[in-house]
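Subject: sequence -> structure tokens, single chain

Hey, anyone have a minute? Need the predicted structure for the following. Not urgent.
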Amino acid sequence: MIAALTGTVTHWNAETATAWVLVQGVTYEVRIPAFAADWIASVLDQGETTVHTYYHVSERQPAPLLVGFQHLAEREFFRKFIEVPDVGPTKAVRALTRPVSEIARWIEAGDVKAIQQLPGIGQRLSQTIVAQLSGRLTLEALLRDGVVEAPPAPAGGPDLREDAVEALVSLQYTRRDAERAVEQVLESRPDVQALEDLLRAVLEQQAPAGSPS
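Reply:
Had a minute. Here:
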């Protein structure tokens, strides 16, 4: 498994969506999703850069494929996205033309029409994506610049419970469901102090038994 490459981006071809990353004398060819095209172009010949990568090889696709991302969280979203039946790495690279956070919000909101805007994703596949991933992308939906952005704290001071509820409501949870989910986590894990940890715990709690996190 190649989890990341740290080196110099020496070549970028927007038409084929491929970049070359030179690492200690070895050049790796990396496919770059469209949403990350501006980033990879900005670091071309700009010295050492870290590219988080997803490495894929299978019996059906024996030629190794490296897919690159600016942020680790984007790679993790990609890993979940290709778990959906009929969404392989090659199709996913072509489909991800919008920021990860935006696509994650569409999925969490069940916005099938918005998801259909992605290249190669028709109505039936968009419905499958929602069915497979809804409830598993809460953190990704809160991403901004590769990190989870917490909602502003209420005027009266930091309130973890209320911040978490508001974050879930913004992702199309009903307030009642959001409050119930947050309370259940806080009862079982009173030591949780960070919003990101609380939201992750809510996600894990609501994931169907046996599903990957």
